[in-house]
Write a structure and sequence with these properties.
This protein has about 240 residues and is of the alpha/beta class. The chain has ten helices and ten strands. It has a single domain, classed as Rossmann fold, CATH 3.40.50.300. The chain is about 40% helix and about 25% strand. The strands form two sheets. A six-stranded mixed sheet has the order 6-7-8-3-9-10, sandwiched between helices. The protein has a four-stranded antiparallel sheet with strand order 2-1-4-5, with helices on one face. The structure holds adenosine-5'-triphosphate (ATP) and magnesium ion.
Length: about 240
């Protein structure tokens, strides 16, 4: 479904991704594991066209994305939940959700249908619908960021460290929701995480990114038993 082939992404002299390739098949949950600064966010930004690629190609459903704009990427069916949530704190929960659907140009009826789906997944967002996004707790803001991405009816959902800064119980709740989105809605997921243990619990396959290069790619069963993964990502 998604095929990233040999991409390079730089920030000035810093080469953040060096010849990275990865694939995500339809209906999979694939995790991208990596420490601080490995290049996970850069990968997400490359796919969503927020960062130009110097080399390589990105294909989605057989179409090359290289020359598309971020809004066109959303219209192709790729939505991203960015690192640090990036919700609009002054806007209400409802307005935040509507922003997610904006590039799609939905009718009122379609919009309501999308909202119903998001509210079914995260009832708390319905309760807090008219509250400013900034007044939500960290966990609720993460749910809002996921809900906002779902408003565009993605076929592929990119999540950049959804567990960041959340208490363990909330991490569980968020990961359950990701699994539900995948299983019930049939949405494919690419999940960047430092929390390898949690990410592998819901993923089928994973990639390990080290200093801008993929060093490992395998099923999670194989990754869990890999010495490098055990030592560096699972605490020995
Ligand atoms: N805006 C930027 N300007 C310059 N260098 C950057 C910028 N963003 C990222 N980098 C560098 O690119 C590399 C990859 O960073 P990136 O944010 O993609 O890593 P990451 O895996 O998402 O890390 P984290 O887990 O901390 O979010 C790092 O060396 C980082 O310092
Ligand atoms: Mg990051």
């Amino acid at each position: 479904m998604l095929v990233v082939r040999d991409i390079d992404v730089s920030y000035g002299n810093i080469r953040a991704l060096k010849g990275v390739s990865l694939e995500v098949q339809e209906k999979e949950i694939v995790c991208l594991l990596g420490a601080n600064g490995a290049g996970k966010t850069t990968m997400m930004r490359a796919i969503t066209k927020l960062r130009p690629i110097q080399r390589g190609t990105i294909e989605f459903m057989g179409q090359v994305l290289n020359d598309l704009s971020p809004a066109q990427i959303v219209r192709q069916g790729i939505s991203c939940v960015p690192e640090g949530r990036k919700i609009f704190p002054e806007m209400t929960v409802l307005e935040n959700l509507e922003m997610g659907a904006y590039p799609r140009g939905y009718t009122k009826a379609e919009m309501d249908e999308n909202l119903d789906k998001v509210f079914a997944l995260f009832p708390i967002l319905k309760e807090r619908m008219h509250q400013a996004g900034g007044t939500l707790s960290g966990g609720q803001q993460q749910m809002l960021a996921i809900g906002r991405a779902l408003m565009a009816r993605p076929r592929l959902l990119l999540l950049d460290e959804p567990s960041l800064g959340l208490a363990p119980l909330l991490v569980e709740r968020v990961f359950e929701a990701i699994q539900q989105i995948n299983q019930q809605e049939g949405i494919t997921v690419l999940l960047a995480e430092q929390n390898a243990r949690m990410a592998m619990r819901i993923s089928q396959r994973g990639y390990v990114l080290v200093n801008g290069e993929i060093t490992l790619s395998d099923t999670v069963e194989m990754l869990r038993n890999n010495e490098e993964v055990k030592k560096n990502y699972l605490g020995g």
